[in-house]
Amino acid sequence: MTTPMTDNPIFAVAARAEALRAQGADVITLAAGEPQAASSAAVVEAAVAAVRDPATHHYGTAQGDPALRALVATTVAGATRLPWSADDVQIALGAKHALFLAVQALIDAGDEVLVAAPGWPGHAEVVTAAGGVAVPVATDEAFRLSAEALDSCRGPRTRAVILSSPGNPSGAVHPEARLREIADWAQQHGIWVICDDIYRAFDYTGTYQAVLRVAPRLRGHTAVVGGVSKGHAMTGWRVGWLAAPPEVIASARRHVSRTITHVPTVNQRAALAALGDTGTPVEAARDYRRRRALLVEALNGIDGIDCPLPDGGMFAFPDVSGLLRDRGWTSSADLAAWLLDTVHLAVVPGEAFNAPGHIRVCFAVDDDTLITAIERLRTAFGSTVHETAAQQLEEVR
């Protein structure tokens, strides 16, 4: 069975996994773009207290709770080393909504926005939703954008580039020198930079830099998108933000006011508690670093798989073209479908990211889940690694 490609292929994989579970299959999902862990007790308690507060039962402001916006401004200021205020922030229904708000503020129908290829399909989706044209830009062998590649795709209607670091699916972090080149190019051509910083908490190399910290001169032409989804395991709460110049924030506020009115106040209170909890992302990053090492070693122990160690994020993104050739599959979509139906292991095929010959494998799961998944892979394909996954995990702890 080949998993059909829909508007969001990642959701298609999740739907197929749920269908198999409903039939009684013991499916392990390493396909999700979210932490397996639950939101912290502090977040839950803040939400419960908010529900009991009658003030949350009524309308709030379109731009978002002032206290939350102020704390987001402090967070963005810490990353960029530039001053930000609550007025510079718009609260959104998750980072994807914030990306849409940024794009719709910057483009007219038919304008172009450059997006990385391979890259997260949501970037192209928000451009299309805003009436624009998403133009894929090939990344280098390390899955990073370059000024040269961006310029080769620039046209008379190019308005912006979406830059994600660490990236999804690759986990690539753009080093300072590369960011400076991209900033110079953007300034030269009057191109806006939309920074998708949703994976910023998960930098395993210590090389992450905010674009505006490297190139503060771009402050007037940069929008920063973030949220609590990944770092605080709050994907279901749908709270993100946009930090940007006044004209972008004004446009975003008008759009929110005319459509959703505002992000639910209870959810904003929960996000406020999350941002006050600096320990959760640090602890998660420490655990993910261990699991990243275990998963990458296991994948590289299978003939036909070449898996680089990701700089950041929550995913390994191995090249499986050798495995496809040796085992007779015609695509990574076919491989992913076989893994799901036969091995009961869900991963995302590279076709979802404009990267045939790859699969995306999430390591933001608990130790037992990852160990079981690795053992299933070794049973299915064989491995040059002779230790059990549990033994290897102890070694990287």
Protein model, in words:
This protein has 15 helices and 12 strands. It is α/β, with parallel strands linked by helices and 397 residues long. α2 (41-52) packs antiparallel against α10 (265-275), α3 packs parallel to α10 (265-275) and α11 (279-300) crosses α15. It is globular, with a radius of gyration of 21 Å.
Name the average pLDDT. Answer: 94
Rounded to the nearest angstrom, the radius of gyration is 21 Å
Helix share bin: 40-55%
Please report the number of helical segments. 15
**N-C termini distance:** 38 Å
Largest sheet: 7 strands, mixed
Give me the strand/helix succession: HEHHEHEHEHEHEHEEHHHEHHEEEHH
Strand content: 5-15%
The stretches of 5 or more residues where confidence is low (pLDDT under 50) are: 1-6
Helix/strand class: alpha/beta
- In spatial order, strands of the major sheet run 2-8-7-6-5-3-4
